[in-house]
Specification:
about 0% strand, single chain, mainly alpha, 5 helices
């Protein structure tokens, strides 16, 4: 029995992912954090329920070019060794050119990464929105169908009760007609 939440701690009662999903609602924050980390590493998409705020568990595969820094140095001579031997002015110009190239490379890589991440976020957001919209439309369709069926049932029931009421009134009218005829005989 868990001392925090009172849950039964039975061995082998479900899959690891099921246990980790259950741990996401544990009152101790560290337990939730550990379960989240493990679910993220396992890429357990079944732990994600749209609209429940746990979309952060979704992990997407990032291509190699996004995660790795590619070195374009082709020279076997380390950078900076030649600059020590060159005159100071030439060395400073070469270092400035290298720094400028490094800055351009970093900026281009960051722009590429931002474009990729922005595109991924937009696609993920639209996917979740599309899923939620489909669910809502399905719920609306079910509710509309239920309302139509209920209206049909009530109309049928009312039609039956109106028929019964008309029959009762017709019987009452015939009884009143008979009574009127009897009263007319007494009056003559």
């Amino acid at each position: 029995m868990c001392s925090w939440c009172g849950a039964k701690l039975e061995a082998d009662t479900g899959s690891l992912i099921a246990k980790l999903i259950q741990a996401l609602s544990h009152p101790e924050p560290m337990t939730v954090e550990r379960a989240t980390c493990i679910l993220v590493e396992l890429k357990a998409s079944e732990a994600v329920v749209p609209g429940k705020g746990n979309e952060k568990l979704i992990t997407s595969h990032q291509p190699y070019w996004v995660t790795e820094n590619w070195s374009t140095a082709m020279s076997p001579v380390p950078r900076g060794l030649l600059e020590r031997l060159l005159p100071r002015d030439i060395a400073i110009r070469r270092i400035k050119r290298w720094l400028q190239q490094d800055i351009e490379s970093i900026v281009l890589r960051n722009i590429g990464n931002l474009q990729y991440e922005t595109r991924q976020n937009i696609e993920d957001t639209l996917g979740r929105f599309s899923f939620a919209l489909d669910q809502e439309l399905e719920n609306v369709a079910e509710a509309t169908l239920g309302a139509i069926q209920e209206a049909h049932i009530q109309r049928t029931e009312k039609a039956d009760s109106v028929g019964q009421e008309l029959k009762r009134l017709a019987d009452f009218e015939s009884k009143m007609q008979e009574l009127h005829e009897k009263l007319a005989k007494f009056a003559v």
